[in-house]
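Example record

The entry below shows one chain as it appears in the dataset: sequence first, then C-alpha cells.
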Amino acid sequence: MKILIGTALAVALTLPAAAQTGPGQARFRALYKELVETNTTLSAGDCTLLAGKIAAHLKTAGYPDANLHLFTAPGLPKEGGLVAMLPGSDPHLKAVLLLGHIDVVEARREDWTRDPFTLIEEDGYFYGRGTADMKAQVAAWVDTMMRFKEEGFKNRRTVKMALTCGEETSTAFNGASWLSTHERDLIDAEFALNEGGGGRLDANGKPLMMTIQAAEKFPQNYKLEVTNPGGHSSRPMPDNAIYRLAAGLTKISAYAFPVQASDITRQYFAKMAPQRGGEIGAAMAAFAKDPSDQKAAALLQTDPNSNAILHTTCVATLLNAGHANNALPQRAGANINCRIFPGTTPDQVRATLQEVVADPQIKVTLVDKRSEVPKGPQPLNPKVFGPVERLVAKMWPGIPVTPAMSAGATDGAFLTPAGIPTYGVSGMFGDPDGNGAHGLNERMRVKSVYQGRDFLYEAVKIYANQR
C-alpha cells in the first residue's frame, strides 16, 4: 500500500494543477495514460497485453481471480479481452454491462505532429491515438469498477465490464461478437452501456446537447474492380482500367443517396435546432417538422455532422491499381465504405452503386460483412434515459438530452441481436469536427475527459441500484 500511495503521489507531482483536482484524479490520469501508451493497433499492437494490465489494476483494487475472466480466441494471442464483474446483492435483478473496445485505428508517427502513442497534454487537450475513440471511456469504466470495490459500494445489480478487441477492423477477430456467441452467459445483462453517445460542443466549446445512442447506421464495404488484358505502356489504349475506375469513382463522389428520417433523427434535429441556431438550426427545425422539406435537407447536407445522419453515405477509402511502372494496368480496384441508414439493405446499396457507375466493366461486390443488419432502433428505455437526464440537469443545467443515431458503427451491433440492448452513454463532450478520431492528431478536451469520468461514475451507481 505504501508503494502504491508513493507512486500515486509521484504521478500527481508531475501533473498540471488542473489535473490534480477531484478524488483519485491523478490515478485516473495515470490509467488513461497507460491505456493510450499501450499500442493496440491490429498491425503492431497487443490487446491481450492491455487486458492483462487492466486485470492487474482490478486485482490490486480487490477483485478476486474468480471475478476476472481474461480470454483469447485460438490462434489469436494478441487479440484478447477481459470480462470483470462486481456481484450484486439481488439475484433477481439482471446485470448492467459496461462495454468498451480497447483496440485503436492505425497511426503512423511520420504523419502525426506528436507521437500517437504518447499521451500529451497541451492547450487544454489530451493528444494520442485512442484518446477519443475510446480509451477515455474505457479508463472511466475501469476507474469506476476500481472505486466501487475499494469503497465497498453496495450494489443491488451485478455490474459487469467487457473490454474487447477488434471493433476498429471489420476483417479482424471481434471480441464482442465472440463473447455474444461463445460466452453469452458471461456477459448477460438487462442492457449494456457503450460508446456512441455523449455531448456535443459548438465551435467555441459551449455544451449544446447530450445524446444517448439508440440506433446506428450499418457499415458495409464494397469492392469496385476493373480488369483488363493490359500491355506495354508504350502502346496506350483507350480502354484503361485505371481510367475506367476513376470515372466510376467520380460518379459515386457526385451521387447523394435519398434523404431519410426516423423518429430518433427527427427528435435529435428538433432538440438540436435551438441550440445550434442560425441557418443550420432553422433547417434542423424545419426538417424535424417535415422531412420532405427539400430546402432544409439541402442545407443540412452542407453540414458534415448533419449530413452523416440524413441518409446512406458512401465514400472511397482505399485504392489499388497496376502492377508495373511500364505496363498498362491489368487490374484497378477501390474500396467504398458505406454507412447505411436503417431500413435500407446492403444489397440495395450495391445495386445503387452499380447503377451509378453505369459501366458493366466495373464490378461492384459486397465484402467484409461485419455483422447482421440491425432490425431497428433500441427501445427508449426510461431505465437508461432517466439517470442520464437527472445527472445532466445537475451537471449541465439547461442542456437537452435526446436519443441519437450514430453515423458510425459500434459493438452494439453484436450484443443487441444476442438479446442485450446496447446504448451509447458517455457524458463526454466532443468537438464538432469529431476530435480527429480515425484521423491525425486525435484529441479530447481535458475538461471533457474528467467531467465524463465523474458523470459515468455517478451514472453507473444509479444503474447498479435500480430495481
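Notes for this example: Residues 218-367 form a domain with the Alpha-Beta Plaits fold (CATH 3.30.70.360). The CA atoms of residues 24 and 382 lie 31 Å apart.
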